[in-house]
Specification:
345 residues, Heat Shock Protein 90, five-stranded mixed beta sheet
Length: 345
Amino acid sequence: MLKQLNTIRYTYIKSHLYGLFLTSVTLLAILLSIQVLFEPRWLSKVSIFVFIILYIVLAFIFSVYVGFKSSGDMKARMDYLSVLIAQLARGNYSSRVYDNADDEIARIGSELNELGEKMQGQVKSLQRMADEKAEYAKTAHKAATIEERQRLARDLHDAVSQQLFALTMMSQASLRLFDRNPEQAREQLREISETALKAQTEMRALLLHLRPVHLSGEPLEIGIRKLIDELKQKCQIDFHIHIDEIEGLSETTEEHLFRIIQESLSNTLRHANASEVTVEIVKRNNDLFVHIADNGTGFDLESDQKKKTSYGLKTMKERSEEIGGSFAVRSNQGEGTHIDIRIPL
C-alpha cells in the first residue's frame, strides 16, 4: 500500500491536492479579510465557510479525477522506459524505445537508445578482444613451452649429464683398481652409489616438472594428494598434508596453486635433502593461506644455492601475484625452508 502511494499516478494526485489545499487557505484568508475590513451584507461568516467546504469537496473530487487521468500517459511512458532498461540489463542491447514527444522523458529515451548502441558496440569489441587474446595465449603457450624445454635441457646438462659422466669415469677407475687396491675401489663404489642416488633424485625432480600443469577438472585437494602419493612411492620422505574444504575457487586459482606446490616439491627433492615435508592449505576469514615447509638443509637467501633455486622461487612468486596473493620464503642453513602464501578470496 505504501509503495503504491509513491507511484507517479499518486504523486500527480498528491500534487493536485496540495494545490487544492493552498488555494483553499488563500481563498479563506481573502474572504475573512474582506468580511472583517468591509463587513458587506452579502458576505457572512456562514456563507464563507459553506463556500469553502463546497469548494474543497468539489475540488477534491476533480483533483483526484484529473490527477488520475493526466498521469496515465506519463505512467505508460515511464513503464516503456523501465522495460527498455530491463532489456538492457538482461543483455538485449538491440532493444530501442521510440517516443516522438519533445520533453525530458523523450530525451531520456533517446539517451538510453544511445547507451544501448554503445553497449552493443562494446560487446562486439570484447568478443574481438577475446579472440585476439586466445591467439596471444596460443603464442605465449608455445613460447613458454620452448622456454621450459630449454630450461630442462640446461638442468639436464648442468646436473644429470655431469653426474652420469662422473659415474662413467668413476666406474672405469674402479674396475682398474679392483685387483690392485680393493679398499680404494670399494670407496669409489660408495661414491658411485651416492652420485647415482643424486642423479636419480634430480631426474625425479625434472620428471615432476613434466607432469601436466592442469588439474584436468579435478579439485585442488585431489590433485595435490595424487601428486604426493606418486612422490611417496619414489622417495623416502614423510609428507604431512592438511587441506581445508574450500569452495568457490576459480579454475585459474586452483591451477596456479597446484603448479606452485609442484614447483616447491621439485625444489625440495633437488636441493633440500629433507626427510619431512608439510603442505597446509587453510581458510581464515576471507583469506586462503598456503604453507609449505621441509626439515632439509635450508640455504642462505644470499648464498650461491639461492641462485640455483631462484628460478623456481621467482616462478612461484609470479604465480602468487597473478592471482592477487603475496609470497614469502624463510630459510637458513640447517633450519629447513618455509614458504607462505596468502591469497584473498
